[in-house]
Amino acid sequence: MNDRNTNGARSVSDRAGSSRTPRADAARNREQLLAVATRVFMAADKEPSMRAIAAEAGVGIATLYRHFPTRESLVDAVYQDQVVRLTTGAHDLLGKLPPAAAMRRWMDLFGEWIATKNGMLDTLLAMIEAGEIAHAQTRTELLTAITTILDAGRAAGDLRSDVTAEDIAASLIGIFTVAPPSGREARAARLLDLLMDGLRTTGRVG
Q1: Ramachandran angles phi, psi of 112, nearest 5°
Q2: 114-150: buried (b, 16+ CB within 10 Å) or exposed (e) per residue?
Q3: What is the pTM of this model?
Q4: Over the stretch 16-31, which tens digit does the pLDDT of each residue have?
Q5: Which residues span the domain enclosing 158?
Q6: Which one of 20, 37, 69 terminates a domain?
Protein backbone atom coordinates (compact mmCIF):
# COMPACT_ATOMS: atom_id res chain seq x y z
CA MET A 1 0.00 0.00 0.00
CA ASN A 2 2.70 2.46 1.06
CA ASP A 3 4.84 1.54 -1.94
CA ARG A 4 1.94 2.14 -4.28
CA ASN A 5 1.21 5.48 -2.63
CA THR A 6 4.85 6.49 -2.86
CA ASN A 7 5.00 5.51 -6.49
CA GLY A 8 1.78 7.33 -7.15
CA ALA A 9 3.07 10.47 -5.45
CA ARG A 10 6.29 10.22 -7.41
CA SER A 11 4.37 9.91 -10.64
CA VAL A 12 2.30 12.98 -9.87
CA SER A 13 5.45 14.89 -8.93
CA ASP A 14 7.20 13.78 -12.11
CA ARG A 15 4.23 14.84 -14.19
CA ALA A 16 4.16 18.24 -12.47
CA GLY A 17 7.88 18.64 -13.03
CA SER A 18 7.60 17.69 -16.67
CA SER A 19 4.75 20.19 -17.15
CA ARG A 20 6.83 22.94 -15.58
CA THR A 21 9.87 22.24 -17.73
CA PRO A 22 8.23 22.96 -21.11
CA ARG A 23 6.77 26.19 -19.73
CA ALA A 24 10.16 27.25 -18.41
CA ASP A 25 11.79 26.32 -21.71
CA ALA A 26 9.14 28.24 -23.64
CA ALA A 27 9.65 31.33 -21.48
CA ARG A 28 13.42 31.10 -21.90
CA ASN A 29 13.10 30.66 -25.67
CA ARG A 30 10.77 33.65 -25.86
CA GLU A 31 13.26 35.81 -23.97
CA GLN A 32 16.05 34.72 -26.31
CA LEU A 33 13.96 35.57 -29.37
CA LEU A 34 13.08 38.93 -27.81
CA ALA A 35 16.77 39.70 -27.24
CA VAL A 36 17.67 38.79 -30.82
CA ALA A 37 14.78 40.81 -32.25
CA THR A 38 15.86 43.81 -30.19
CA ARG A 39 19.40 43.52 -31.51
CA VAL A 40 18.19 43.17 -35.11
CA PHE A 41 15.84 46.15 -34.82
CA MET A 42 18.63 48.23 -33.31
CA ALA A 43 21.05 47.50 -36.16
CA ALA A 44 18.53 47.82 -39.00
CA ASP A 45 18.17 50.83 -41.29
CA LYS A 46 14.71 49.65 -42.30
CA GLU A 47 12.26 47.18 -40.83
CA PRO A 48 13.66 43.63 -41.06
CA SER A 49 11.42 40.77 -42.10
CA MET A 50 10.20 38.23 -39.58
CA ARG A 51 12.14 35.62 -41.55
CA ALA A 52 15.36 37.64 -41.14
CA ILE A 53 14.81 37.82 -37.38
CA ALA A 54 14.17 34.08 -37.20
CA ALA A 55 17.32 33.40 -39.21
CA GLU A 56 19.39 35.61 -36.91
CA ALA A 57 17.99 33.70 -33.94
CA GLY A 58 18.83 30.38 -35.60
CA VAL A 59 15.25 29.12 -35.55
CA GLY A 60 12.60 28.39 -38.14
CA ILE A 61 9.99 31.00 -38.97
CA ALA A 62 7.31 28.75 -37.43
CA THR A 63 9.10 28.92 -34.07
CA LEU A 64 9.14 32.70 -34.16
CA TYR A 65 5.45 32.83 -35.08
CA ARG A 66 4.61 30.40 -32.30
CA HIS A 67 5.90 32.93 -29.77
CA PHE A 68 4.92 36.07 -31.68
CA PRO A 69 2.00 35.34 -34.06
CA THR A 70 2.24 38.72 -35.83
CA ARG A 71 4.82 41.41 -36.50
CA GLU A 72 2.76 43.71 -34.29
CA SER A 73 2.96 41.33 -31.34
CA LEU A 74 6.75 41.17 -31.69
CA VAL A 75 7.09 44.95 -32.00
CA ASP A 76 4.86 45.44 -28.97
CA ALA A 77 6.90 42.95 -26.92
CA VAL A 78 10.22 44.60 -27.85
CA TYR A 79 8.84 48.09 -27.22
CA GLN A 80 7.37 47.22 -23.83
CA ASP A 81 10.52 45.35 -22.80
CA GLN A 82 12.63 48.42 -23.57
CA VAL A 83 10.28 50.70 -21.64
CA VAL A 84 10.51 48.39 -18.62
CA ARG A 85 14.31 48.45 -18.88
CA LEU A 86 14.21 52.24 -18.78
CA THR A 87 11.74 52.57 -15.93
CA THR A 88 13.28 49.90 -13.70
CA GLY A 89 16.74 50.95 -14.83
CA ALA A 90 16.44 54.26 -13.00
CA HIS A 91 16.14 52.49 -9.64
CA ASP A 92 18.70 49.83 -10.51
CA LEU A 93 21.30 52.40 -11.55
CA LEU A 94 20.75 54.49 -8.43
CA GLY A 95 21.44 51.37 -6.38
CA LYS A 96 24.85 51.03 -8.01
CA LEU A 97 26.00 54.54 -8.95
CA PRO A 98 25.95 58.14 -7.69
CA PRO A 99 22.99 60.06 -9.15
CA ALA A 100 24.99 61.98 -11.78
CA ALA A 101 26.65 58.80 -13.03
CA ALA A 102 23.28 57.02 -12.96
CA MET A 103 21.75 59.78 -15.07
CA ARG A 104 24.53 59.54 -17.65
CA ARG A 105 24.17 55.77 -17.89
CA TRP A 106 20.38 56.09 -18.15
CA MET A 107 20.89 58.38 -21.14
CA ASP A 108 22.75 55.54 -22.85
CA LEU A 109 19.79 53.24 -22.17
CA PHE A 110 17.50 55.87 -23.68
CA GLY A 111 19.71 55.96 -26.76
CA GLU A 112 19.47 52.18 -27.10
CA TRP A 113 15.68 52.48 -26.92
CA ILE A 114 15.69 55.13 -29.65
CA ALA A 115 17.95 52.96 -31.83
CA THR A 116 15.63 49.98 -31.38
CA LYS A 117 12.62 52.04 -32.46
CA ASN A 118 14.32 52.96 -35.74
CA GLY A 119 14.13 49.36 -36.96
CA MET A 120 10.43 49.01 -36.27
CA LEU A 121 9.26 52.58 -36.76
CA ASP A 122 6.59 52.08 -39.43
CA THR A 123 4.84 49.32 -37.50
CA LEU A 124 5.23 51.19 -34.22
CA LEU A 125 3.72 54.41 -35.59
CA ALA A 126 0.81 52.48 -37.08
CA MET A 127 0.17 50.79 -33.73
CA ILE A 128 0.31 54.11 -31.86
CA GLU A 129 -2.10 55.67 -34.36
CA ALA A 130 -4.45 52.71 -33.95
CA GLY A 131 -4.32 53.05 -30.17
CA GLU A 132 -2.63 49.66 -29.73
CA ILE A 133 0.26 51.27 -27.84
CA ALA A 134 -0.39 53.94 -25.20
CA HIS A 135 2.26 56.46 -26.22
CA ALA A 136 1.14 59.02 -23.63
CA GLN A 137 1.45 56.44 -20.85
CA THR A 138 4.96 55.57 -22.02
CA ARG A 139 5.95 59.23 -21.94
CA THR A 140 4.66 59.54 -18.38
CA GLU A 141 6.61 56.47 -17.28
CA LEU A 142 9.84 57.75 -18.84
CA LEU A 143 9.46 61.19 -17.29
CA THR A 144 8.89 59.52 -13.92
CA ALA A 145 12.12 57.55 -14.37
CA ILE A 146 14.06 60.74 -15.14
CA THR A 147 12.49 62.48 -12.16
CA THR A 148 13.54 59.63 -9.88
CA ILE A 149 17.19 60.19 -10.77
CA LEU A 150 16.85 63.97 -10.70
CA ASP A 151 15.37 63.91 -7.20
CA ALA A 152 18.20 61.70 -5.98
CA GLY A 153 20.73 64.05 -7.58
CA ARG A 154 19.17 67.10 -5.97
CA ALA A 155 19.17 65.42 -2.59
CA ALA A 156 22.83 64.56 -3.04
CA GLY A 157 23.62 68.06 -4.26
CA ASP A 158 25.20 67.00 -7.54
CA LEU A 159 22.36 67.73 -9.99
CA ARG A 160 20.75 71.11 -10.60
CA SER A 161 17.45 71.89 -8.94
CA ASP A 162 16.12 74.10 -11.75
CA VAL A 163 16.02 71.38 -14.42
CA THR A 164 12.88 69.33 -15.11
CA ALA A 165 12.42 65.85 -16.50
CA GLU A 166 10.77 67.44 -19.54
CA ASP A 167 13.91 69.51 -20.14
CA ILE A 168 16.08 66.40 -20.15
CA ALA A 169 13.69 64.38 -22.32
CA ALA A 170 13.55 67.17 -24.91
CA SER A 171 17.34 67.47 -24.87
CA LEU A 172 17.79 63.74 -25.36
CA ILE A 173 15.37 63.65 -28.28
CA GLY A 174 17.23 66.56 -29.86
CA ILE A 175 20.61 64.88 -29.40
CA PHE A 176 19.51 61.56 -30.85
CA THR A 177 17.80 63.33 -33.76
CA VAL A 178 21.04 64.98 -34.90
CA ALA A 179 23.28 62.11 -33.79
CA PRO A 180 21.41 58.80 -33.97
CA PRO A 181 22.98 56.18 -31.68
CA SER A 182 23.45 53.75 -34.55
CA GLY A 183 26.48 54.81 -36.59
CA ARG A 184 27.21 58.01 -34.68
CA GLU A 185 27.99 56.67 -31.24
CA ALA A 186 31.01 58.94 -30.66
CA ARG A 187 29.14 62.14 -31.51
CA ALA A 188 26.11 61.12 -29.46
CA ALA A 189 28.35 60.28 -26.49
CA ARG A 190 30.08 63.68 -26.70
CA LEU A 191 26.75 65.53 -26.81
CA LEU A 192 25.44 63.50 -23.86
CA ASP A 193 28.60 64.35 -21.89
CA LEU A 194 28.06 68.03 -22.66
CA LEU A 195 24.44 67.75 -21.50
CA MET A 196 25.60 66.13 -18.28
CA ASP A 197 28.11 68.95 -17.72
CA GLY A 198 25.18 71.34 -17.83
CA LEU A 199 23.18 69.28 -15.36
CA ARG A 200 25.85 69.04 -12.69
CA THR A 201 26.10 71.57 -9.88
CA THR A 202 29.85 71.08 -9.51
CA GLY A 203 31.87 73.83 -11.12
CA ARG A 204 28.90 76.04 -12.00
CA VAL A 205 29.26 79.77 -11.67
CA GLY A 206 26.44 81.74 -10.15
Answers
A1: -65, -40
A2: bbbbbbbeebbeebeeeeebeeeebeeebeebbebbb
A3: 0.78
A4: 444 456 677 778 889 9
A5: 71-206
A6: 69
